[in-house]
Design a protein that fits this description.
The structure holds two protein chains of two kinds. Chain A is of the alpha+beta class. Chain A has helices at residues 42-50, 92-102, 107-121, 136-148, 166-183, 194-200, 218-223, 228-233; strands at residues 4-13, 16-26, 31-35, 57-62, 65-66, 77-80, 154-158, 187-191, 203-208, 211-216, 240-249, 252-258, 264-268, 283-288, 293-294, 306-318, 322-329, 332-339, 349-355, 360-362. In chain A, the strands form four sheets. Chain A has a six-stranded mixed β-sheet with strand order 6-7-8-3-9-10, sandwiched between helices. Chain A has a five-stranded antiparallel β-sheet with strand order 13-12-11-14-20. A five-stranded antiparallel β-sheet of chain A has the order 15-19-16-17-18, with no helix packed on it. Chain B has 14 helices and no strands. Classes of the chains: A alpha+beta, B mainly alpha.
Chain lengths: 370, 315
Amino acid sequence: MATLEINSLRKRFGTIEVLKGIDISLEKGGFLVLVGPSGCGKSTLLNTIAGLEGISSGEIRIGGAVVNDLHPSKRDIAMVFQSYALYPNMSVAENIGFGMEMRGVPRAERDQAVASVARTLQIEHLLSRRPSQLSGGQRQRVAMGRALVRRPSVFLFDEPLSNLDAKLRVDMRVEIKRLHQTTGTTIVYVTHDQIEAMTLATKIAVLKNGELQQVGSPSEIYNRPANMFVADFMGSPAMNLLEGAVMQADGQRRIALARKDGSSIMLPVPASADAAGLKDGARVIFGIRPEAVNDDESMDRNAKSVVRFDANVEVIEPAGSDTYVVVRVAGKEVTARMRADADVRLGQPHTFAFNLDKAVLFDPTTTRRI
Amino acid sequence: MSAADLVTSTPSRRGPGHSRTTRIVIYGLLFLFALVYLVPLLVMVMTSLKPLDEVTGGNMFALPRHLTFAPWSMAWGEARIGVSDTRGISGYFFNSVKMVVPAVLISTLLGALNGYVLTKWSFSGHKLVFGMMLFACFIPFQSVIIPMAVILGALGRIGVGLADLTGWSFGLGNATVNLVIVHVIYGLGFTTLFFRNYYAAFPSELVKAAMIDGASFFQIFRRILLPNSTPIIIVTVIYQFTNIWNDFLFGSTFAAGDTAPMTVALNNLVNTSTGVVEYNVNMAAAIIAAAPTLLVYVIAGRYFVRGLMAGAVKG
């Protein structure tokens, strides 16, 4: 049985529908990341799970029981807020113990639970301090401690890392991941950062305008995006999306990418695509990740289907570990992720290769994957 | 950023554009205006410490030649207030204290509660309710006197009824209680305004976190909101204390004779038409009347600037 189940959840503010029928379930010990651009409804969804906002229709189940009308404190959840929301007038220990105090847990038991959580998070030396005397990372830890001490069935994280600087954010990301792995907790996590989503999640839900675009494992989302929005949103640099046409050539069905000089790059239909759904002459969007655009030297040795093409190098962006090379194909810029010491020169032609094992096709009108 | 960081990162006060002459002019003017404001108080203090013949026969700005505290004890315990009372202003001083303390506490607490509800539990129509409460800030004192008198009269009759039934009027009809009621109602618009604006900037995530922690409506108010409201509580208390203590109109309208507050008694003392005008006693009484508000500023003023919320949210 799933720990968290959301069935056809709708949420309206007046006449504006901000959540349009969400269905998600999360098994025990899972890590669900809600990701999407600002205003997509991900924080609202989290708040409805927490009970901080009511819902218009549908149901939310936690541990099998419908919690639609339960007060937040009765839902067996804990929440870590973006601003941490530590009570400034209380010490760290009082902050962590406040929930238990409200539930009438005896002092001795409370102190013991606080001490044990503080040990887990290595904040024992901070227990008597006030939140204003802590650094950003320490506040983050205290906020997690306040959630952990409740031992809830679901943890809710609302963009917990967005107030930290870049380096600390990576450290805390690792820490949250470790916490999840060692304690086996069930987590729902909201972020707009797709890298956080990919690295942390066991399950990602991509939202846009209050609609669920796709739910799946990070690899499903990354390699088999359900539509062009998901393809474009997840991954950095973004997936290359090129216009092409379906046609017959040499007795086989091909995808043709027209070039400026009148010629075409002919590609076999990627294995991921449903060939039955293709009609000759139809327009398609050919999607390929930057790391699947490369040259012969650093092409994946196991690639089964590779197509080479020549193109002029327009921009070179060295990123240390990789070099991003921008070329023009079929009227669009295509980013290739190449090894750091790739032998490319600005303005010079270079032979590139598409690894079609990793390519996907989209229908340009519905934007869905074929 | 903590308060300490803010202080240390403040740039040097001696800016590049401020030459020595500019500063001399600025401080000279400040000194001059400070003097202008202080002279009346100085004259009052000096006059109150002189015997009466020195006051009537000498220079107002001259230092006392025979220092005497007799006018002070006279004002406090023996001065003639009105026609028959010769017990000084002490009784009226405590009338004021008995009126001010509950009125300030109740109106501040209710204002805080209103601000909390209007910002953190905003119901539909909360803006209208707040707008109407704001209206209370703009109503002139004089215009509420007659309706207020009618209501207090009704409350007084209820008090008499209660006294017949239970032997106790529950304070209804008592002049001091009436004044507390009047000042609480009249001050509510202001205190609500102060607290609403303060709580509007108060992070709602703290309230949500407390809800998840299982705190009730009043627990959130008492444990989360109030302890983090010190600056605005002090602002409100100073404002309310000063206004209520200094009020003359309500005091003279709704409390008569022995139950009158300090301000009314001072007026009766000074405006007496019998005998010689004892300026030194009047001055001493006036200083006594002004002392509590001065004291409140001296004690609470320094908490005014303390930003207790520093570091509560974000890094």
